[in-house]
Write a structure and sequence with these properties.
By secondary structure, the protein is mainly α. It has two domains: 24-76, no CATH class; 82-293, Orthogonal Bundle (MetI-like fold), CATH 1.10.3720. The protein contains 13 helices and two strands, in the order ββααααααααααααα. A hairpin with a 2-residue loop joins β1 (18-21) and β2. α3 crosses α7. 23% of the residues are buried.
Length: 298
């Protein structure tokens, strides 16, 4: 004897459209209010960005007028051309791209290797060493700036890219922490099965752990890109030659040269910010996924 189950479609009324967030039933009206508040906040935060873009396209006689003229009477695209004509800005971009690319590879290599050791290997004092490494994040960079400068001067590395690149191949505490959290979430059965098949520790790291850690590695790469692309203090301290300067230092020197030409300064700032915006828009999904999978575990 069979049992017949019938279902009756339920009509969802407008007032029933609720979303449960944090244990609170949020109605459609409340969500609209939240979106409006967020939109207003985003608009306020975008004002400096819009002013920078607008100033980069203004003629000089419209930059300092009051009240502010938000929309230029005519677009002066030649301001962007002047950035490259009055300074070796193309060289600055190439130097920054080179430093950023090598630094990303160094951070991925050094931090992932240390994170794998802290997460998967068993040795005495592992937790103590990990805590000591994390504690270095609490030390301000100003404390170690002078000793580090003296050390690199003793090595003869001043006015070269070595002080900016060599440290990246050693474990960076923050990146190591992110990758360690991911490696700790990988089932140990995969590692045990690989060891039974005769895989060495390095082979497990290279062929098993790294392919699984692609979202976390992408997050580290994005963080590293923003850090080194926008870095000012390191290049300002260690680089002196004009042909070795990065974008940040180049804009600083460009400001001193073009003391009153804010249109050229804003154009240079827009050019330097463009790669960061493109990376954020195209890699936003990877970034969010990486942050989720590297959440704190046990």
């Amino acid at each position: 004897m069979g049992m017949e189950v019938t279902t009756r479609p339920r009509t969802l009324r407008h007032e029933d459209q609720t979303v449960i967030i944090g244990g609170h039933r949020q109605t459609a009206l409340e969500r609209v209010i939240v979106y409006i508040v967020l939109l207003m906040g985003a608009t306020v935060l975008m004002i400096p960005f819009y002013w920078m873009v607008s100033t980069s396209l203004k003629p000089l006689d419209e930059i300092f007028i009051f009240p502010i003229k938000w929309i230029p009477s005519r677009l002066v695209w030649y301001n962007y051309v002047e950035v490259f004509e009055r300074s070796p800005f193309a060289r600055y971009i190439l130097n920054t791209a080179y430093l950023t690319g090598v630094a990303i590879m160094g951070n991925l290599f050094g931090s992932s290797l240390a994170a794998f050791a802290f997460a998967r290997l068993r040795f005495r004092g592992k937790n103590l060493l990990f805590m000591l490494m994390l504690s270095t994040m609490m030390v301000p960079g100003w404390v170690t700036m002078i000793p580090t400068f003296i050390m690199f001067k003793y090595f003869g590395w001043l006015n070269s890219f070595k002080p900016l690149l060599v440290p990246t191949f050693f474990a960076q505490p923050f990146y190591t922490f992110l990758l360690r959290q991911f490696f700790m979430g990988v089932p140990r059965d995969l590692e045990d099965a690989a060891r039974i098949d005769g895989c060495s520790t390095l082979r497990i790291f290279w062929q098993i752990m790294l392919p699984l850690a692609r979202p976390a590695l992408a997050t580290v790469a994005i963080f590293s890109f923003f850090t080194h692309w926008n870095e000012l203090l390191g290049p300002l301290i260690y680089l002196q030659s004009q042909d070795k300067l990065t974008i940040s230092v180049g804009i600083l020197s460009f400001r001193s040269e073009q003391y009153a030409n804010y249109a050229n300064m804003m154009a240079a700032a827009c050019i330097s910010m463009l790669p960061c915006l493109l990376l954020f828009f195209f890699a936003q999904r990877l970034f969010i996924q990486g942050v989720v999978v590297t959440g704190v575990k046990g």
